[in-house]
Write a structure and sequence with these properties.
The protein contains 3 helices and 21 strands. It has helices at about 1-20, 30, 45-50, and strands at about 60-70, 70-80, 85, 95-105, 110-125, 135-150, 155-175, 190-205, 215-220, 225-235, 245-255, 260-270, 275-280, 290-295, 300-305, 310-320, 325-335, 350-360, 365-375, 380-385, 395-415.
């Protein structure tokens, strides 16, 4: 019984880690409109996220920006061999950000950022074919980043600071393809945890040899989310020595959010036009397995075998009038998930993002920013090959064709003085 109970919780925790691999770029309206470039672009206090070394280059003494987005996503699943299909009915996600910076003198600046780099809301049709893998998942992570930057030389600045991460998750699925209790109700397992604290750091470098060209580098460290007080709830299991008891049990697990390296450049062709390019590498190969420790002291290891993934980003900014700036961009984002590990908790395959937006300068201090992202995921026929029904020792495969897309409008404000 303990072995089956451990297996059920193991599969559920794996979905938390997979959701962590799902990363929509929504850390700035201005920079999202430019394909989410920004490691070498000093536009506003948003540079605190993209490259902390850049906050010392802001012209004003006090800078503030804040905003939010509506993530409207849909996923369609179909398996023509078995004649099954389903669609998600997910709630709208609402990632937000806020940044503030203060220039102490010409060489020293400090700041604080609050943003949501990881999060997912996925709800599948009731009793769909993959309900033994997931019915619903909600994952969130809020990062808090104090930052300091210093101008080393006329053309070189550095910056960085600690990151405090606060995470939470709720998830439920049916325990098997056909397992029910004596009343015919499907057996279900749910997990929940919130307020999980973890820590990391970020550091950046910016090289500005002249007023037109900038080169930037940013590193964000691995952050391990350690769940020690989560609860797994088992319901509608039959009264049998071969299945888990109904009720709650505790668990502990460590979920890695990968380190990231970003390099980029920007070039001002004239006073109106700026172009930018960023390359991002997410070090997902760190995530080889997930180790779980249960209340009874037993340990279970779950191989994941993720791969490092890259994102290429292009962006442009044009000052159309004294008050209106328009932006557009494009990016290509690789998936870290390898063949055979594709699960429907947060369907995540290669994607292309098309972005545009604008800023309107209301007065000398205040501007309104808006952006829009159309994210198109590559259609894929893949499977998840590691699910084991209760009472069985043979893993089974669940697969089909997935079509995904997301629409992400955003709005924000910037203020400086």
């Amino acid at each position: 019984m303990n072995k089956l109970k451990a297996l059920a919780v193991l599969l559920l925790i794996s979905t938390m880690a997979y959701a962590g691999g799902y990363r929509v770029s929504t850390q700035s309206n201005r920079q999202l409109a430019m394909g989410h470039t920004g490691v070498a672009v000093v536009n506003s206090a948003d540079i605190l996220f993209f490259n902390p070394a850049g906050i010392v280059h802001l012209e004003n003494k006090l800078n503030f920006s804040a905003g939010g987005f509506g993530v409207i996503s849909s996923v369609a699943y179909q398996n023509s061999e078995f004649g099954t299909s389903a669609e998600t009915d997910s709630p709208t996600g609402t990632p937000v950000y806020a940044y503030g910076t203060y220039k102490i003198n010409e060489k020293l600046a400090v700041g604080l950022g609050i943003y949501t780099p990881f999060g997912s809301n996925v709800t599948w049709d009731t009793n769909w074919a993959g309900s033994h893998l997931v019915n619903e998942i909600e994952l969130s992570a809020i990062f808090i980043q104090p930052t300091v930057a210093y101008q080393l030389f006329d053309s070189v600045s550095i910056g960085g600071g600690p990151i405090i991460a606060i995470g939470g998750v709720s998830f439920n699925r049916n325990a098997g393809r056909s397992l029910t209790n004596e009343q015919g109700e499907r057996s279900n397992v749910a997990i929940e945890d919130s307020g999980v604290l973890a820590y990391g750091w970020t550091a950046g470098l910016m090289f500005t040899p002249n007023d037109r060209f900038s080169l930037g580098f940013n590193y964000r460290s691995l952050i391990d989310i350690e769940s020690t007080e989560g609860t797994a709830t088992f319901t509608n299991f039959p009264n049998s020595s071969l299945t888990p008891d109904n009720g709650d049990t505790g668990f502990t697990a460590t979920l890695p959010l990968p380190a990231e390296i970003t390099v980029g450049l920007s070039y001002k062709f004239n006073d109106k036009l700026l172009l930018a390019f960023d390359y991002n590498r997410a070090l997902w190969s760190e995530y080889e397995s997930l180790d779980l420790v249960f209340e009874n002291g037993s340990t279970s290891i779950n191989p994941r075998n993720y791969k490092d993934s890259s994102t290429w980003r292009l962006g442009a900014q044009y000052m159309a009038t004294d008050n209106l700036t328009v932006r557009a961009g494009w990016y290509y984002d690789e998936s870290p998930v390898q063949s055979g590990y594709f699960a429907p908790e947060t369907p995540r395959n290669d994607s292309i993002g098309y972005t545009f937006g604008l800023s309107y300068q209301v007065n000398s201090k205040l501007a309104i920013d808006a952006s829009f992202l159309y994210l198109r995921f590559k259609e894929i026929n893949e499977s998840y090959d590691f699910f084991t029904d209760p009472g069985s020792t043979t893993p089974s495969s669940f697969g089909g064709t997935y079509k995904s897309q997301a629409l992400i409008p955003g709005i924000g404000v910037t203020y400086s003085m």
